[in-house]
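Example for tutorial group B:
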């Protein structure tokens, strides 16, 4: 497999399966998952449920499908759900909560990506003649738009207990929940126990080509299985993909700490650059958000064309760089040097 000519920091979704992962995929024993007889998918689901401390799990094609399936199962049409205004589910999932689940969304603001534990309980409403029932709170940990921010366990616990008292469920978009666990120094199950359901992505920091896993009670997962089928997510010999997930859980979780270290290294190197401001120093996980003096689109285009470094435009003057298993420390140093050069060139232009 030829190496990419770029240092790709656009996302941790750009990784390619390693030779070991490809070998595991090639050796996978498969069945028909719609008929529920793929042994490798069974193994992945059992392993995921065990890691998250839940009764059951369901292999899903994507995190977006996982989230909307969870919303569908936890709610009734006409209900209201609570979402951070900058949550992935709010911004990047094509309004599927309204279309698929038929629910209204009410937004709240999280300071630096941490949900407002004191404010959320008051937002939960009982059904009346005039208003919908608030049946679900969707959280995100780590929080992408907040620079990979991590919610402390104590705050997570306060929120979960408050929602339980008010009869509302909690779903965690834990696309990068293993990053959160590494940052907090706890097993992922300690985060997941403060939820009614949780999904995590295999195709982000864990390096798989595709897939997420949705975890919860057995009754929840059985209902989610029907929603998955309804959405066209029923898969056949998908044990080939599940094998990649099992390999990732065995080999790519603990090493996320390397990505966090590389993000801190990058942020530290560019923090004093002319025309460049790091939004969170040090980064909480594997993301570095930076503000540029010139337009972000100009910065990113110049970075790619002159130095072969790829990053993402996240706003008019906001750029994101994400570290992952396909980026070495040496490449991080080269990327930092390139960013400083481009920032200076743009600032002086």
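The residue assignment follows.
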């Amino acid at each position: 497999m030829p190496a990419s000519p770029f240092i790709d920091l656009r996302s941790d979704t750009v990784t390619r399966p390693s030779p070991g992962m490809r070998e595991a995929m090639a050796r996978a024993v498969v069945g028909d998952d719609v008929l529920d007889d793929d042994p490798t998918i069974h193994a992945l689901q059992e392993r995921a449920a065990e890691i998250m401390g839940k009764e059951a799990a369901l292999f899903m094609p994507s995190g977006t499908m996982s989230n909307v399936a969870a919303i569908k199962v936890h709610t009734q049409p006409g209900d209201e759900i609570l979402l951070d205004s900058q949550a992935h589910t709010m911004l990047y999932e094509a309004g599927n909560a309204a279309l698929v689940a038929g629910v209204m969304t009410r937004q709240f603001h999280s300071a630096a990506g941490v949900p407002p534990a004191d404010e959320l309980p008051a937002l939960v409403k009982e059904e009346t003649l005039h208003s919908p029932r608030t049946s679900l709170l969707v959280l995100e940990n780590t929080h992408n738009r907040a620079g990979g921010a991590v919610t402390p366990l104590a705050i997570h616990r306060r929120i979960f207990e408050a929602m339980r008292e008010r009869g509302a469920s909690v779903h965690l978009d834990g696309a990068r929940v293993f990053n959160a666990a590494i940052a907090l120094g706890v097993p992922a199950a300690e985060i997941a126990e403060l939820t009614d359901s949780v999904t995590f992505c295999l195709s982000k920091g864990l390096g798989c080509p595709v897939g997420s896993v949705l975890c919860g009670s057995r009754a929840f997962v059985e209902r989610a299985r029907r929603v998955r089928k309804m959405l066209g997510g029923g898969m056949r010999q998908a044990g080939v993909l599940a094998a990649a997930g099992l390999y990732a859980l065995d080999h790519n979780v603990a090493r996320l700490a390397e990505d966090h270290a590389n993000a801190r290294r990058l942020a530290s190197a560019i923090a004093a650059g002319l025309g460049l401001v790091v939004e969170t120093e040090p980064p909480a996980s594997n993301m570095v958000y930076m503000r540029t003096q010139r337009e972000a689109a100009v910065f990113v285009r110049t970075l790619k064309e002159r130095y072969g470094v790829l990053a993402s435009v996240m706003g008019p003057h906001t750029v994101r760089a994400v570290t992952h298993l396909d980026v070495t420390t040496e490449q991080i140093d080269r990327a930092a040097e390139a960013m400083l050069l481009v920032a200076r060139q743009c600032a002086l232009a």
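The two ends are 39 Å apart (CA to CA). Compare this with the pattern of hydrophobic and polar residues in the output above.
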